[in-house]
């Protein structure tokens, strides 16, 4: 098994660390905020205990947590063979982080950028090892999703790509090969859909529940686009749309003002308890959840 460092203990980093530890890997979970790390470890323990209720395997939470070391110091990743970065989809933050990762990691370590939109070649340019930077777009919730997008950068070597492919296989993930382009395949399509669905609510065409019901009942989608936005994180949706808009300079990616307002208001979806819907402590939507939204205009 591989020693893996997971940098960023938000929703995605927590899921990646849990998935790795469940599959027998030794994990270091790092975030600049100690309380965020503590919450992530608590969430992993809870997720393991509840896993069987959501169709997952019976999991010993104590055994899983025994494989994870949490902390705030990048020096903890010195012995890791793979470093998986999961911080906010923000170029300035990534620009600040990667030189530190580069200095702290073993020279032979492979970097995995878990990004939903930023091109891998651009991220690799922040390091002295662009040949060992690979993109992996994990889906949320990570332990439950069977597939990922696997993206090489311009300089990525076949050896680095194969090492990450083998790691993904050990995690139970099907790697779908995608060429390097902003948004890759999934988010070039998904972010447009979610953004346009937000515009429907913003313009008063329909409320969130109605929009989602159309997609569930008419197209057989298990979740509507705005339920999906709450699962991913409304703030993450906004940042991803902004990255697409900046990169392609195409007005079709203009962010919906409602996404900006909700992000500013802290209505980030399930992780904050409110988004397009309200959520209780277990993450279940609450009746009357449309009242969670701020005024559209």
TrEMBL record:
It comes from the Bacteria. Residues 183-279 form the 3-hydroxyacyl-CoA dehydrogenase C-terminal domain. Pathway: Lipid metabolism; butanoate metabolism. The keyword Oxidoreductase applies. Gene3D superfamilies: N-(1-d-carboxylethyl)-l-norvaline Dehydrogenase, domain 2, NAD(P)-binding Rossmann-like Domain. The keyword Ribonucleoprotein does not apply. Residues 3-180 form the 3-hydroxyacyl-CoA dehydrogenase NAD binding domain. InterPro entries: 3-OHacyl-CoA_DH (IPR022694), 3-OHacyl-CoA_DH_NAD-bd (IPR006176), 3HC_DH_C (IPR006108), 6-PGluconate_DH-like_C_sf (IPR008927), 6PGD_dom2 (IPR013328), NAD(P)-bd_dom_sf (IPR036291). Keywords: Oxidoreductase. Belongs to the 3-hydroxyacyl-CoA dehydrogenase family. This is NAD(P)-binding domain-containing protein. It comes from Streptomyces bohaiensis.
């Amino acid at each position: 098994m591989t020693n893996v460092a997971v940098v960023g203990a938000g929703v995605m980093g927590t899921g990646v660390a849990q998935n790795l530890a469940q599959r027998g890997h030794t994990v270091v979970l790092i975030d600049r905020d100690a309380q965020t790390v503590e919450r992530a470890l608590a969430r992993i323990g809870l997720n393991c205990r509840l896993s069987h209720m959501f169709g997952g395997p019976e999991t010993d939470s104590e055994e899983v947590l025994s494989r994870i070391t949490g902390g705030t110091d990048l020096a903890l990743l010195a012995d890791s063979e793979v470093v998986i970065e999961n911080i906010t989809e923000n170029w300035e933050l990534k620009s600040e982080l990667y030189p530190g990762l580069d200095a702290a990691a073993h020279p032979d370590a492979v970097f995995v950028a878990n990004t939903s939109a930023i091109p891998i070649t651009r991220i690799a340019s922040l390091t002295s090892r662009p040949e060992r930077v690979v993109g992996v777009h994990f889906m949320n919730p990570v332990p439950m999703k069977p597939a990922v997008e696997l993206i090489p950068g311009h300089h990525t070597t076949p050896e680095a790509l194969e090492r990450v492919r083998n790691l993904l296989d050990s995690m139970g993930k099907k790697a779908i090969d995608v060429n390097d382009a902003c948004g890759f395949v999934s988010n070039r399509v998904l972010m447009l859909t979610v953004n346009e669905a937000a515009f429907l609510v913003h313009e008063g065409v329909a409320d969130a529940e109605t929009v989602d019901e159309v997609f569930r009942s008419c197209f057989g989608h298990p979740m509507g686009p705005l339920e999906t936005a709450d699962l991913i994180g409304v703030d993450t949706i906004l940042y991803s749309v902004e990255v697409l808009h900046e990169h392609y300079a195409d007005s079709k990616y203009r962010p919906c003002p409602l996404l900006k307002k909700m992000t500013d208001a802290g209505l980030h979806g399930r992780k904050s308890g409110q988004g397009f819907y309200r959520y209780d402590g277990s993450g279940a939507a609450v009746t009357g959840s449309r009242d969670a939204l701020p005024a559209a205009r």
